[in-house]
Inverse folding.
């Protein structure tokens, strides 16, 4: 599952790069990139759901509750900040996002 999600992350990142930070595609390449990113995000989300269901099979009734949904708070804060920066025409946000993505990949290896 991890390898599938990593491959989908790479596809989603590539689609976002080819979209060039615009909301509506102007050419066919941007439309295909947006479609690829959307399908990749669906695959990533589905992979997390399947993984959680597999892990739930091994839980005991006496186990402590987990609060994994709280991990969405930093992700939502990042996305809100990113879209706010894009809408404010802060052009350097794309390079900063690329840099943050490269840190994530380097720390996983």
């Amino acid at each position: 599952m991890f390898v599938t999600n990593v491959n989908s992350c790479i596809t989603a990142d590539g689609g976002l790069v080819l979209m060039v930070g615009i909301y509506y595609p102007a050419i066919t390449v941007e439309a295909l990139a947006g479609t690829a990113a959307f399908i990749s995000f669906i695959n990533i989300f589905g992979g997390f759901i399947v993984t959680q269901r597999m892990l739930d099979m091994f839980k005991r009734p006496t186990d402590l509750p987990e609060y994994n949904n709280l991990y969405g708070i930093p992700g939502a804060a990042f996305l809100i900040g990113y879209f706010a920066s894009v809408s404010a025409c802060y052009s350097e946000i794309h390079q900063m996002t690329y840099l943050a993505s490269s840190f994530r990949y380097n720390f996983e290896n």
